[in-house]
Amino acid sequence: MKNLVLLGGGYGNMRVLLRLLPNHLPDDVTITLVDRVPYHCLKTEYYALAAGTASDHEVRVPFPDHDRLKLIYDEIAAIDVDNKEIVLETNGTLAYDDLVVGLGCEDKFHNVPGAAEHTHSIQTIHKSRETYQTLNNMPAGSKIGIVGAGLSGIELASELRESRPDLDIKLFDRSSRILKDFPQRLSRYIEKWFTDHGVDVISNANITRVEPNHLYDREDVYPMDAIVWTAGIQPSHVVREMNVEKDKSDRVILTPHHNVPGNEHVYVVGDCASLPHAPSAQLAEEQAEQIVDVLQKRWKGEPLPEKMPEMKLKGVLGSLGKKQGFGFVADRAITGRVARFLKSGVLWMYKYHNG
């Protein structure tokens, strides 16, 4: 029997499981999934967990149940592509015939002194729980800093405002306007929402140092009771240590068929893969669809297409609390209740098909 090993139970590898199980897995192949927690986590919703507007069970989905799917709950210490095995923290080593690495990302602190030690995170469910405990145990009037006004920072700031209207929230944006790569209409709408709801947006910020109760924006010093870092990501440290070629962002360079060059048995999906689009759950799922097609052809001994289909993303949706939202879909900016409704619908459909 061949053993297909999936590292990480994120969006990419969940799509791999959805495509192969229950009826499209060859009779001579078994699957082993390794993850640190016993459920699939909806990482795109960690902002709500941290803000206190979603409960823990709302951001979890159970893994599939199948007699040829083995689940191992462990931390991954290393990936040895030369010997085709995975080194686990407590369960020894795990051999594979084919491997899909989907270990996601970690915070990137850009060498800012004190950032790693003195900020909170929403990159894992464990860290999001800790951030929730910190933010929601703060006394009224506490000063909260959120560094990074990308999608995660915007959604966290807005959701926290609704959860804790008594807090003093500052959102630090490195750019001159929020979401500068999107139409100005979206930027103006989001900025107006923050103004109307008392969230202070600090534009053109350049965080140079973080201390336990202070945030330094060049020469400006902001007293803070808690700081959450949403200002950049990098691949998992396990992937950064793999003996494979990577791009300048430490993401693994792949062939058009999503495997490591010179090794048709190792695939990388999601945040750790060097792709022409910004990392996202949607991109990981699109890539996973193609990886499954490639695996099935290789298992059958069929030739691969010289060129894979272009991965087309449907757009971006974000929330501003529970009633408002924003998005860029089909080259069109959308705002207000319609955008929030669409995002809620997408989340419901995802849970329905995976739960």
TrEMBL record:
Pfam families: Pyr_redox_2 (PF07992)
Molecular-function annotations in GO: NAD(P)H dehydrogenase (quinone) activity
Highest taxon above the source species: Bacteria
Residue ranges annotated for the FAD/NAD(P)-binding domain, each copy included: 3-283
Alphabetical keyword list: FAD, Flavoprotein, Oxidoreductase
GO biological process terms on file: aerobic electron transport chain
Cofactor entry: FAD
InterPro entries in UniProt: FAD/NAD-bd_sf, FAD/NAD-binding_dom, NADH-Q_oxidoreductase
Family statement drawn from the similarity comment of this UniProt entry: Belongs to the NADH dehydrogenase family.
Protein name (database record): FAD-dependent oxidoreductase
Organism: Domibacillus mangrovi
